[in-house]
Amino acid sequence: AGLPTDRFVFEGFLPAKAGARRRRLEELTAEPRTLVIYESSHRIEASIGDMRDAFGPERRAVIARELTKTFETLHHDDLAALCQWLADDANQRRGEFVVIVAGAPELEESNTADVRRVLSLLMPELPLKTAARIAAQLTGETRNRVYEMALELSRNDN
Questions:
Q1: For residue range 4-22, what is the model confidence (pLDDT) as tens digits?
Q2: Close Cβ partners of 9 (under 8 Å, ≥ 6 residues apart)
Q3: What is the pLDDT of residue 122?
Q4: Distance CA 57, CA 104 (A)
């Protein structure tokens, strides 16, 4: 698949209902290991879109379709481009799917310090969720990771 295989986690099928699927993906945002996920043809487009929203549009992934069959397809790209690829060609939404998603990148220590500094300035003035969203926009870090850091900071303050 062209993604790290030294450490991976097999997630199987994600929940069928959109809300439960999004919650499960949110739980996986900081997972550093490569994710291996099964998906059906009925949900592949929505699932890839949810992955893009949860993990960020730049996260690398592979859609493996119809493995070991005549029309086997492997498509490597970032999640935003994979969403577009599925939307552009209905034939690519047919069959059985394995989605392999790169693990979350480790935060660089300097970026972590920047995020914490921005959060420490915003959190006293704004609700936690709003502070995390703005800090993510300012630092370029994913919203989910910044929110987790904000939760950690708020727990440490109490």
A1: 888 899 999 999 999 999 9
A2: 31, 33, 34, 35, 36
A3: 93
A4: 12
